[in-house]
Amino acid sequence: SAVISQKPSRDICQRGTSLTIQCQVDSQVTMMFWYRQQPGQSLTLIATANQGSEATYESGFVIDKFPISRPNLTFSTLTVSNMSPEDSSIYLCSVEGTVRETQYFGPGTRLLVL
Amino acid sequence: AQSVTQLGSHVSVSEGALVLLRCNYSSSVPPYLFWYVQYPNQGLQLLLKYTTGATLVKGINGFEAEFKKSETSFHLTKPSAHMSDAAEYFCAVSAGGGKLIFGQGTELSVKP
Asked: Rounded to whole angstroms, what are the CA distances from A63 to A7, A16, A69, A70, A109?
């Protein structure tokens, strides 16, 4: 399985500001995923990020709000833009392992927007 | 379209008792199924997965799950609960293109 790290692990932000979350993997992977876990809720896929192409966003998520970069095969960033308290969530990145369809998750970034 | 339903948002068992967490799925293609565990303030850890082959799948920490196609179920069990098993458990089904669809989660409490 891949070892995944995220920065920051948690943050408290003011509304209207933006936060960029970093995801680093210890091996090269084709597909990376970004999820949101709202308080007490399950995980919802925000977007899929493949290196060398634009991220693919799920219904209800747009690039202007959640821009994603994928500059190489071991790194990705997710920006939460113009934040509001409703953006308070855990944001997790994941990667597909060597077994197809199997995902491994980072520790998450806990975001509180005031 | 794929979907997952976890029956019971909260399950409480006594230490040493059987753990049974229920998961039913809907999939238009042969599914890949997963159970993940999330301990407080941590990310998700893969417990076990079913892709093809043997329908009884063994995972980490003594957990196992059985894929029953006729019942569209993938229930998670452990013969004897331990205090350290207290966590949130998520069932997930593959949705193609590497994506996963998650159930709502079941919080497991273990009483001494």
From this structure: 21, 17, 11, 13, 19
